[in-house]
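How a chain folds remains the central question behind the approach discussed here. In the encoding step, the backbone of a single protein was reduced to a row of integers, each denoting a local shape. We regard such an encoding as a compact summary of how the chain folds. The sequence in question and its structure tokens are set out directly beneath this paragraph:

___
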Amino acid sequence: MEAKWCFLATMALLAMLVGVVNGDGEVKTIVKIVKGKKVCDKGWECKGLSAYCCNQTISDFFQTYQFENLFSKRNTPVAHASGFWDYHSFITAAAEYQPHGFGTTGGKFMGQKEVAAFLGHVGSKTSCGYGVATGGPLAWGLCYNKEMSPSQTYCDDYYKYTYPCTPGVSYHGRGALPLYWNYNYGKTGEALKIDLLNHPEHIENNATLAFQAAMWKWMTPEKKHLPSAHDVFVGKWKPTKNDTLAKRVPGFGTTMNVLYGDQVCGKGDDESMNNIVSHYLYYLDLMGVGREEAGSHEVLSCAEQLPFSQASASASSS
């Protein structure tokens, strides 16, 4: 009887391990029950056992052709980072953050919207589009992977003991959500376990790393008492009374407040803010979600929001 029970238990465990690779080389989901909760691992795209990996992952609803549609001009001869950015690098980077809810929180619809929101910021910050550009100004996201003609080296000596500048190194803008300043390279490098303080050029040489740095910024609160852009977008952040008085509400508008503060928020009809919103709406349309699902003006905009933080002289370039 005991032997039979052991056999059945073993078979049940094997049934929960829903394969790693099938005959065609396709990675399948590993499912386990840990402390009474279902957790999953989807191999290279959603690494590590997590409840979020049991949901649809990004490649289930956002595929190569959609990435190509969103960034249709990025590999044209006039694009400054032609040949650098690609879909595989995006998904590989996302594999590190999907187990924490990036694109996997709240089901397929919310996942689609979050990917569009994140890429809306990315597209706006890396665009070389302009009013009469071929295909329109919103088709030119991921045109850059670095600042082309930096006016300074972005070394802030205030951080000389924590993130000292390396002689001869420039900390100008690089990446999908461009990093500026020695302290931002230092903090991001610590999180990603890459020496970006001494070698910031790693960001412009590796598209996966560039996307990872941007996703880390999206998923991580700037300060302990502040939410992350991810949290305010997917509804995990609950506004306080002070937030309500400051007109900060969950949604896309507040992601701009988290990421840029008074650089774009609380300034009324700001051109930079409108450009970010326009990219988000454009990507929602191209992904088949539709801009009508973006929410009200209050949710989309941060024009009337009081900023979470005031930019310092150095942060104003970040």
Remarks:
- The chain is about 40% helix and 5% strand.
- The first strand starts at residue 30 and ends at 34.
- The radius of gyration is 21 Å.
- Residues 88 and 246 are 40 Å apart (CA to CA).
